[in-house]
Amino acid sequence: MKLTKEFTSLEKSAVKLTVTISKKDVEETYKSTLAKYVKNAQIPGFRKGHVPASVLERKYGESLKADTISELIDASFSEVLDKETDNRPLPYSQPVMDELPPFDVTKELKYSVTYDVFPKIKTEKVDFTGVAVKEPQVTVTEDDVNEEIKAMQERNAMVIDKKDETVEKDNIVTVDFFEVDENGNEVADTKREDFVFTVGSGENLYKIDDDILGMKKDETKEITKKYKKDDADPDLAGTTKKLKVTVKAVKLRELPALDDDFAQDCSEKYNTMADMKSDITKNMELAKSRKLKELKNNSILEQLVEKNPFDIPASMLNAELDGRWSMMAQQFQTTPEQLEKMIVASGQTKETMLKEWTGDSEKMLKSRIIVDTLIRERNISVTPEEIEAEYVKIAEEGGMTVEEVKKHYEDPRSKEYLIDDTKENKLYDEIYKEIKVSKGDKLSFKELFEQR
User: Which terminus of the chain has a lower count of CB atoms within 10 Å, N or C?
Assistant: First the structure.
């Protein structure tokens, strides 16, 4: 097919494609379409396949033109895209035609479509000028390890009835409660029965931890609570509540002794507490390294996104937001449609939530595009040997065998993720050789994981 094409860049990483098809191709396609009509048309008074073309043109003129235009546009659009690499439409961007072109078998056919394309950074290469990162200084201490062991100890605690049945801090209590009005009557819709919480945790609506200290099982007490004007709960802020509380059960959390038996109960790979401490230290060091790498990588990407502006196409952003919405529905074990009903019932709307997500989604998409662009610019690839090395590394870090790791990555999609991740790691290894990395603030292990 003889044609000419012209691409015009539009806002938000969209393009307008204008295609002009030669008069000769228009004529030949029209004749071909007409021949199909002649072959298949059944009109009273004529044998099938012998209807005069002039009769068909009078009877089906508009349909003939429409079919010819459709065939010309489909064929020419496919031909343009087959030879195009930079201006291919995104998979989720449906090309839109400005208007259906007029058809004249004696003239060229010209049409235009607009669609979104993969975003392009507006500089020839990604600009790294002035990019630098600070690495927080973090040491895994013995206290950090002991805190983790304490958390494991609490997770393995036994809950038993308390002998003296008197409420003290850290006891686990079961209570009934309700608000009472100034006449001592129960306030409707405030009653809760068999509510369980740990005293001192603050994990109860009215924050009555201190008020029930010293109460005994089956004891009922009327409590008056005054809440500060700046209380975190707007429904309680500045109010005074009268509550009637009954303690129904008082229990203790009995912690296991921190000895070799405890270590063995936690994992079959431990023989002694020393084994456990060593493994916990190793895992915390690994977690620290991963978190530091995440923070440094995010800092680099934030700077690159700011220094290398480009637009995110609307269709790409919408696809990302739809994906997040579907993922949220999966987390709630429901359908996207049912999730929307649940959100409306809670007083919000899907549109409001998507709007709140837009900023973060745009940043994430831009970061991903920057990474993809850099990988292409630098021709970064991975070899089978490098993937084998990744298997070994994952096995060592996860306490698995290499065969177990390989089995996990048998699925082609999972292996593709590993390949992409390995490429990205190679990219960052290159970047860190080119930018300045200086020492940042000293942080505790806990503070490190509060960073974003």
Answer: C
In contact, 438 and 132? CB cutoff 8 Å: yes
CB-based burial label for 250 (10 Å; 0-12, 13-18, 19+): buried
Amino acid identity at 351: E
Q: Which helix (H) or strand (E) holds 226?
A: strand 220-226
CA–CA gap between residue 57 and residue 18 (Å, rounded): 29
Residue type for 123, please? T
pTM beyond 0.70, yes or no: yes
Picking from 250, 242, 192, 245, the residue whose alpha carbon sits closest to that of residue 216 is 250
Indicate the DSSP class of residue 186.
Answer: B
| 110 close to 19: Cβ distance less than 8 angstroms | yes
| Cβ atoms of 48 and 37 closer than 8 Å | no
When pLDDT is cut at 50, 70 and 90, the band that residue 47 belongs to is confident
Locate all alpha helices (DSSP H) within 141-210, ordered by sequence: 142-155
Q: How is residue 378 written in tokens? A: 């630098």
Cα(170)–Cα(156) distance, rounded to whole angstroms?
Answer: 16
Which residues are 439's β-sheet partners? Answer: 135
Angle between helices 350-377 and 336-345 (to 10 degrees): 130
- Position of tokens 């009769």? 55
| 3-state class (DSSP) for residue 442 | strand
DSSP character string of 125-145: S---TT-EEEEEEE---HHHH
DSSP lists the bridge partners of residue 197 as 173
**What is the pLDDT at residue 360?**
94
pLDDT at 398: 87
Alpha-carbon span 95 to 115, nearest angstrom: 5
Phi and psi at 224, nearest 5°, equal: -110, 125
